[in-house]
Amino acid sequence: MKIRLNRINIQLFIVSAARNRAALDRAVAFDVLFGQRLERCIRGRPRQMQNQIHFISGLPRSGSTLLAGVLLQNPRFHAGMTSPVGSMYRALEESMSRKNEAAVFISDQQRENILRGLFSSYYNEMSHKEVIFDTNRIWCTKLPALSRLFPEARVICCVRSISWIIDSIEKLARQNAFELSGLFGFDASSTVYTRVNSIAKSSGLVGYALDALREAYYGAESSRIMLLEYDDLCRNPEASIAQLYDFIGQPRFKHDFDNVEYEADNFDLQLGAKGLHTIRRKVEWIERPTILPPDLFQRFQNDMFWRRA
To answer: What CATH number was assigned to the domain covering residues 53-308?
Structure first.
């Protein structure tokens, strides 16, 4: 026989089962908790992230992996290379857009809840970490939404001379002389000029990131971003990281800049770019000449707009 329970039945059961004051107090506490949970279910309140979240974005080959390796030394923090959250976020946006005919049934509040829920679901297993840093170059283009989803969040934008970014990518390609790289579409007939052109265009690895950075830098939410120069991070890591801690409002931590570790060999090998996310153990500045032809190196010298501001 099935027994049908409703709130009245639960109330009667609680009262009749209370034999003494202590039992009654426990019953009332349970009833209050039950009511609160029921109210949340009815109102459809999404589960909130218990961690504080910030974002790492900016330009490629500008120290984001190095930064993640440094931040990981703090046991309260979680950081890493580009995570899948950005691509999932973008997929959710598209599936909830008018491209989907059923999107007419999705309200803005539901969209917000779903996007916020993506972060809480993905980082659920990181609940023991107080601060999460999610890395993706897409975040520079999502500041209006991120400011509503996570009002306290900040974006650390790693930046560097565009010429040296191009140089670093070309150096990596030449180090893997017998492995075609997905960074250049696995093209076996490319030259340094075609490789540079492919990544410098607006849909390319560097061009897209530079356009996204401009959007964030000149946008209404620019106060939420901090530019972290690769040169500064390498030359004076202690001061650079201290500035970051102050920017996100976290107590400073004593980092060991002589023993920083991070690698993602499986990911890099799949991309045909071995060493892409491998960092040197010691944070230091190393001078070297460029391997780019002079005309290519000079071509991007005026693209560091943030240095002219």
So the answer is: 3.40.50.300
Share of the chain above pLDDT 70, in %: 77
CA 38, CA 225: separation in Å to the nearest integer?
A: 39
The separation between CA 248 and the C-alpha centre of its own chain, rounded to angstroms, equals 14
Beta strand pairing status for 155-159 and 52-58? Answer: parallel
The token pair that represents 163 in the structure block: 């010429």
pLDDT interval class at 190 (50, 70, 90): confident
The candidate with the shortest Cα–Cα distance to 164, out of 270, 75, 288, 43, is: 288
Q: What's the CA gap between 241 and 147, in Å, rounded?
A: 23
Question: What angle do the packed helices 7-17 and 21-43 form, to 10 degrees?
Answer: 160
Residue 35 CA to residue 24 CA, distance in Å, equals: 16
Query: What pTM does this model have?
Result: 0.79
DSSP state of 1: -
Per-residue pLDDT band for 176 (boundaries 50, 70, 90) equals confident
Tens digit of each residue's pLDDT (9 = 90 or more) over 155-170: 999 999 999 999 999 9
DSSP 18-68: --SHHHHHHHHHHHHHHHHHHHHHHHTPPPPPSSEEEEEEE-TTSSHHHHH
Tell me, rounded to whole angstroms, the distance of Cα 290 from its chain centroid: 30
